[in-house]
Amino acid sequence: xxxxxxxxxxxxxxxxxxxxxxxxxxxxxxxxxxxxxxxxxxxxxxxxxxxxxxxxxxxxxxxxxxxxxxxxxxxxxxxxxxxxxxxxxxxxxxxxxxxxxxxxxxxxxxxxxxxxxxxxxxxxxxxxxxxxxxxxxxxxxxxxxxxxxxxxxxxxxxxxxxxxxxxxxxxxxxxxxxxxxxxxxxxxxxxxxxxxxxxxxxxxxxxxxxxxxxxxxxxxxxxxxxxxxxxxxxxxxxxxx
Amino acid sequence: xxxxxxxxxxxxxxxxxxxxxxxxxxxxxxxxxxxxxxxxxxxxxxxxxxxxxxxxxxxxxxxxxxxxxxxxxxxxxxxxxxxxxxxxxxxxxxxxxxxxxxxxxxxxxxxxxxxxxxxxxxxxxxxxxxxxxxxxxxxxxxxxxxxxxxxxxxxxxxxxxxxxxxxxxxxxxxxxxxxxxxxxxxxxxxxxxxxxxxxxxxxxxxxxxx
Lengths: 241, 210
What we know:
The complex is a heterodimer of chains A (241) and B (210).
Chain A: E1 2-10, E2 13-18, E3 21-29, H1 32-41, E4 46-51, H2 52-57, H3 63-72, E5 76-80, H4 86-94, E6 99-102, H5 104-108, H6 110-120, E7 124-131, E8 134-137, E9 142-147, H7 148-158, E10 162-167, H8 179-187, E11 192-196, H9 202-211, E12 216-221, H10 223-226, H11 232-238
Parallel strand pairs in A: 1-4, 1-12, 4-5, 5-6, 6-7, 7-10, 10-11, 11-12
Antiparallel strand pairs in A: 1-2, 2-3, 7-8, 8-9
Chain B: E1 4-8, H1 15-24, E2 28-32, H2 35-40, E3 43-46, H3 52-61, H4 64-73, E4 78-81, H5 83-86, E5 91-92, E6 98-99, E7 106-110, E8 120-128, E9 142-148, E10 150-154, E11 159-165, E12 167-175, E13 178-181, H6 189-205
Parallel strand pairs in B: 1-2, 1-3, 3-4, 4-13, 5-7
Antiparallel strand pairs in B: 5-6, 7-10, 8-9, 8-11, 11-12, 12-13
């Protein structure tokens, strides 16, 4: 499995949120490029970058920082946060991202999603946030009423090749990923799944590697890396399968 | 003689790692976009990570496109790395398409990875398609480190190396004093250092900058 160290940018800094709550923020790096350099230097192959200000604003707000990361770090990066129109998606790809992650807009605006899949194909990742098995919309502050499994199955049929599935209940807690939920989602699609939320130690990564189907291709790790619970190299080894 | 190699700085690429690798093999490396500095170099490296259209825009706005062409005419060797290799060609399909520097004929297109994950990340054996001073002492099928979604389609005569990822793709090109590699020699351990050392040797033998 692929390790995706997470770099969430808010107000120009690398931060982590608890349960996606903007009020529960910890600042880790004044310059997100420092985080990117650290994770790449430790052997990361793919970075997961989120523009938290953009997620709230509905359009990219940290393009400059994203561009600096993409232009400096020679590992692959995927970027998400508030990408709701073709111009924003294009701006992120032009900034040098290998993939873009779209969330709410993919679920609310099927025409937008179709156009993005047509234009950018496998470079599009659709992010689905789950709270109690249901889809949570709008940067998590809004509740949806569709089950995550149904949403993923429907979107797979539309041609989405890769999903990012975040379990909000465990996100930022380091108490372990929502493996049962992941298995349910993964078995509803043949597309690739990137698991996000809850990783706090190496055993969590080992169980992701051993207890999920093959299409769970990677895991996002945030706080645990920033708090040095383990290194990038140890995480990559734990995810080996 | 120690080769003085200038790594062209247009703001895109992990230039320090290239610089460190060059110094490791005994070359004198500088990172610059200054015309005077570039004109004094025995060899140039065009690095690059990120998106093709933006990179080309920057290369042009800094006047590097013309300058590189002039240095090539003066016999100075140029090595493109990763996106820097792609920029040597006529065009890329990335993000709706953009024109390159046309220093080598051919276009850049998305990898036909046959269902494999793109970007292609990791070590892949590289097969040498012709004999070259750049690859001297490195066996064919030696693995190099890749991170890319696109690759060029050079003319048969310019094809220096290929690798397989789903389908075979061109990963090294050479024509006269123009060289380019899609992989990252600076991240490809001993074989990568040997390639950079070979390039430094080619630069040291090139005509003195004038």
